[in-house]
Amino acid sequence: MSTPLLEVRNLVKQYPATTAVDGVSFSVPEGICFGLLGPNGAGKTTTVEIMEGILPPTSGEVRYRGEPLGARFREDAGILFQKTALQDFLTVRQCIALFRGLYTHGLQIEEVIRICALEQLAARDARKLSGGQQQRLLLAIALVNDPAVLFLDEPTTGLDPQARRNFWQLVESIKARRKTIVLTTHYMEEAELLCDEIAIMDRGRIVAQGPPRRLLREHFAEVLLELPRAEFPETARALELQLIETSDRVEITTHDLEGTLRSLLAAQVPLHNLRVRPPNLEDLFLELTGKELRP
Amino acid sequence: MIRRLAAVFHARNLEFLRDRGTLLFTLLLPIMVVIGMSFVFGGPQRPLFKVGVLGAAGDVRTHPFLSERYVEFVPLTGRAEALRKLTHQQLDLLVDFGDGTRYWVNTDSPKGYVTEKLLLAAEPGARREPVTGKALRYVDWLFPGILGMNMMFSCLFGVGYVVLRYRKSGFLKRLHATPLTAFEFLSAQVLSRLTLILFVTAVLYAGIGAIIHFHSAGSTALLALLAVLGALSLIALGLTIAARFSSEELVGGLLNLLTWPMMLLSGIWFSLEGSPRWVQWVANLFPLTHLLDAARAVMLDGAGMAQIAPHLVYLAVTTLAFLAFGAWSFRWRID
User: Looking at the predicted complex, does its ipTM rise above 0.85?
Assistant: First the structure.
């Protein structure tokens, strides 16, 4: 069996008042997009920052290509933090040039600009970029050393849907270059789209790990039916159904789709706004953690 | 290493040059100081010549020379002190009318030459005692202090607040995720600030020097070496404050805690000669004191490398000590 690109062993990070990471272990094979999911405060950013060599663990270790993190890892890793301020008064191109100057090897500045679609913005003051443009610049900076492993820590938090989809396209193009990506996110749609393998964290521990489809298969044999809550009559609540009510809808989980539909029709539940869907990662997350997402 | 250092150095210089407010202030301050100095040391016409007259307190003299116009006659009692002033051309001529007129003249002083002629016109047989020595005006004495003060503020606040801002904004954390080492980062900051300081100090030296007609008695190259070592020591001192802390209030307080004692005790405005021994001992801890003492020795007395070597060594040692402490205590991120 080949050595994984990254290996996390029994990672613990304790602060005076809390244990942020509590015995986490996993490995990341080369060439995949590995997603670390969880709500705010789950410990995913702490875990990733230890993996990035930014934060020392209380105990446990991270190995890169079988060795402890060191100079080679710093040359090989590209990092996009959740929040990063850049030096003031520099243009987009100068910001990229600054970081390119910190690495021995890497891509040409113009190539990075092209990959991240920053050609039109190269001469602009980096402080005057929109949120999506700023993230593209930070991604460009993370790519200047042509990294073997790219860490993306909640890269689309705060972006509008268009900018988010635009960013996903960029990440997919990087995936196509066979780069290893470690992605933390609390957007399940993002994880489903980009990740080959995920680990779900809660309270500093990993509660599930594997390819998304396999996890869904393992945890769900049912389908989900959604109805507007306003159209769900009181009489239907007497039916023997597995119900979850939210503020605006009723979710019914069932193994027997036809039987459930017949029961609903018999109870005179209007079905013209019925939605039937397979379970997704959000359902899995709620199943495993019992919490609503906290974006 | 050089490549990484150069990248940070270049980017920091660009940031400084494009920060219009700071740049304007940095350029305006020396200009304002130059203009202020020209006002302070300009002003109404004063007597052309100053002659010291030796004698006991309360002596009343009548002598044709004492009725000369445009000459201020200053009664003096101590000959040694009077001769020191004559040597520094704070007097143009020193006369003792008792027991046959005797006078001392500074042969380096053009005004001494003129007042000597005036005296000899009044009393051709007066006995001549020549001395030598360049003029020392307060403005000449103050000049190194002004340069040093500007250097101190720029070094301490310029470095301290910039690194603090980088840490608070998370920029340092991002740099930490690269192969850049703390030593490389700090060295780039030191070199960038040093380049700026040397430029500003050179402008001030030339600008104020031209206005007050100052000419250094010593080597300009030695002054440049002194400026480099002095600035390095002060920048490194600023880094010891900026290396760790994340609170603007704390860093501001600590910087003020350093700058104010230096302002008062390092001899910017007045000499500490005659002050209590402990005050002088404390003053000698400050790099600025050594910078100013050495600068005055070179600029006013023409001291050479050998005479100011102890000051140079002190500045070099404190630079290394401050840098080592700064690198040791440096934090990339807010804990």
Answer: no
